[in-house]
Design a protein that fits this description.
Cathepsin D, subunit A, domain 1; two-stranded antiparallel sheet; 3 helices; globular
């Protein structure tokens, strides 16, 4: 299969409120009280972060952390909220990350930072997100140690 120009690669992701999960570990909440959502995200190596529309962020109850400036492909710059306490699970791999909050109704995006954390890549030939060939069973994290 050849990836057609303009074709979007999507991937099913489950996103959990990791603060809720911490409260489960502390025996304050029950596992069934962890807020979560499963949705399709567009895998976008040109985006930096996990980006979710405000209604999904509200459903998850994520914590406001800070505002940032976001530059869009059009060149436009806007201020947006970063919220925290999200754990993303894709294809059995997981990462805890922050979320860029976008306007209501926008498409969820899986940015390159989250894909790097889970050692996933976009395979344009198959139109899929999948583990790197050299790390099919577990994420391979690159770490270069130096001595001073």
């Amino acid at each position: 299969m050849t990836l057609l120009k303009g074709m979007r690669v999507t991937v099913k992701a489950t996103i959990y409120n990791s603060d809720d999960e911490a409260l489960v570990r502390a025996n304050v909440k029950k596992p069934e009280e962890v807020r979560q959502v499963s949705l399709d995200c567009v895998a976008d190596s040109g985006a930096t972060m996990l980006t979710l529309p405000e209604e999904i962020v509200a459903l998850l109850g994520l914590t406001p952390l800070r505002k940032v400036k976001v530059r869009y492909a059009s060149g436009k710059i806007e201020e947006k909220w970063i919220k925290g306490g999200a754990r993303v699970e894709i294809q059995g791999r997981t990462a805890i990350t922050q979320v860029l909050v976008e306007n209501q109704g926008t498409t969820p995006l899986l940015g390159h930072v989250v894909m790097e954390l889970m050692d996933l890549l976009i395979d344009p030939a198959e139109g899929k997100v999948k583990p790197r060939p050299e790390s099919p069973e577990l994420p391979l994290i690159e770490q270069f140690l130096t001595r001073f």
